[in-house]
């Protein structure tokens, strides 16, 4: 089974990750992974940290001559901003961040012990893992993209930039909505046979696990609520050239927890960043007296980057479901199994 773990603090020496279950025989170009790392660091509204970090991955294991060996792939991303032992204590939790809940849970006396790991810096490791999964999926012409739909309620690019600039001036932050699309996904990934095998459940879980994501919808999503069944379900057609197909895709490419051959379409809402330069009310955890929340170096808006992280998350889930269906040891065997399946369902 495809699985991964990440480790590393925001200002520790490095982030590391292990991806296990990638089949043998896949050619990995490090540049392709670094391209995704770069995309995560872009977007209008990013903070100073993004000018310091230029993430580059090193692969420590699982490759020989750029080909996967089927063994665990070890990844290293060094932090240029390594200074964890020199950073000051944080004593007033930021509303909306993990600060207070983490402090209570683990019994720390310094919020830095929480925020170093709770920070979305961790998503750099997820993007590296996702990039490898994207390379795998591209072997089967599956492509995953994302785009910003709105930020701070604005849809037009000029308006979006304006609202981010205004938020920066006002020492505030903004959130928004983005869409993730997977094209070329064959029908049959995922299953209704157990709750943890449903592709819709696994995709929405993985996106909701990205820090700051507060809602995820699949296909028409909340738009189903005020419609009649006759107006929303995607009628089925068949032609020799195309096989089974739909003229609409309100289901977002998944029915019964299984991909149905249409594009997989998800939308998610990223909340406004919780670190505010004009901080909200909080409490000094030592004195228990009223205080303003702590200020950390921070982004103003990360909706575009959250889309890139979500692409990676979707790539991992689709790769897992794909390997589950078509075998998992050797890319050559998987390709043969995939071709046989395509022939059967055509
Ligand atoms: C790519 C990315 C970058 C982020 N950057 C920041 C940031 O600079 N400052 C901040 O307060 N939150 C940032 N966040 C959001 C926090 O990590 C998140 O709100 C926090 O961990 C609490 O988790 P929750 O919002 O899911 O409850 C970022 C999230 C993502 C996906």
Provide a descriptive summary of the structure in words.
- This protein has 346 residues and is α+β, with helices and mostly antiparallel strands.
- The protein is 32% helix and 22% strand.
- The chain contains 10 helices and 16 strands.
- The chain has helices at 30-40, 49-52, 99-106, 112-118, 123-138, 157-169, 199-208, 229-232, 303-326, 331-345; strands spanning 3-7, 14-20, 57-61, 63-64, 67-68, 73-78, 143-151, 176-183, 213-218, 236-239, 243-246, 254-255, 258-259, 264-270, 281-283, 290-292.
- The strands form 6 sheets. Strands 1-2-6-3 form a 4-stranded antiparallel beta sheet, with helices on one face. The protein has a 4-stranded antiparallel beta sheet with strand order 7-8-14-9.
- A hairpin with a 6-residue loop joins strand 1 (3-7) and strand 2.
- Helix 3 crosses helix 4 (112-118) and helix 5 packs across helix 9.
- The chain starts with a strand and ends with a helix.
- It binds flavin mononucleotide.
């Amino acid at each position: 089974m495809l699985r991964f773990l990440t480790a590393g603090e925001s200002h520790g020496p490095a982030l590391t990750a292990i991806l296990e279950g990638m089949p043998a025989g896949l050619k990995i170009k490090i540049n392709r992974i670094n391209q995704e790392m770069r995309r995560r660091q872009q977007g209008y509204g990013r903070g100073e940290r993004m000018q310091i970090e230029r993430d580059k991955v090193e692969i420590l294991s699982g490759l020989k001559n750029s080909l996967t060996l089927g063994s665990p792939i070890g990844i290293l991303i060094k932090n240029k901003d390594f200074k964890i032992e020199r950073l000051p204590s944080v004593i007033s939790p930021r509303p909306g961040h993990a600060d207070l809940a983490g402090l209570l849970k683990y019994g720390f006396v310094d919020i830095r012990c929480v925020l170093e790991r709770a920070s979305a810096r961790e998503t750099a490791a997820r993007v590296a893992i996702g990039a490898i999964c994207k390379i795998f999926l591209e072997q089967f012409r599956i492509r995953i993209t994302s785009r910003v739909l709105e930020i701070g309620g604005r849809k037009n690019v000029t308006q979006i930039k304006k609202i981010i600039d205004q938020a920066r001036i006002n020492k505030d932050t903004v959130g928004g909505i983005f869409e993730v699309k997977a094209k070329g996904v064959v029908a049959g990934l995922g299953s209704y046979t157990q709750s943890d095998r449903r592709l819709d459940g696994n995709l929405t879980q993985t996106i909701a696990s990205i820090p700051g994501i507060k809602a995820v919808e699949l296909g028409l999503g909340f738009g189903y609520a005020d419609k009649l069944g006759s107006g929303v379900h995607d009628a089925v057609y068949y032609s020799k050239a195309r096989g089974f197909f739909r003229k609409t895709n309100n289901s977002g490419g998944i029915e019964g927890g299984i991909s149905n051959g249409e594009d997989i379409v998800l939308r998610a809402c990223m909340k406004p960043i919780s670190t505010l330069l004009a901080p909200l009310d909080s409490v000094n955890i030592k004195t228990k007296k009223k205080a303003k929340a702590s200020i950390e170096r921070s982004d103003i808006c990360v909706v575009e980057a959250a889309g890139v992280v979500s692409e990676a998350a979707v790539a991992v889930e689709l790769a897992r479901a794909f390997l589950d269906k078509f075998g998992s040891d050797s890319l050559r065997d998987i390709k043969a199994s995939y071709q046989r399946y395509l022939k059967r369902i055509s």
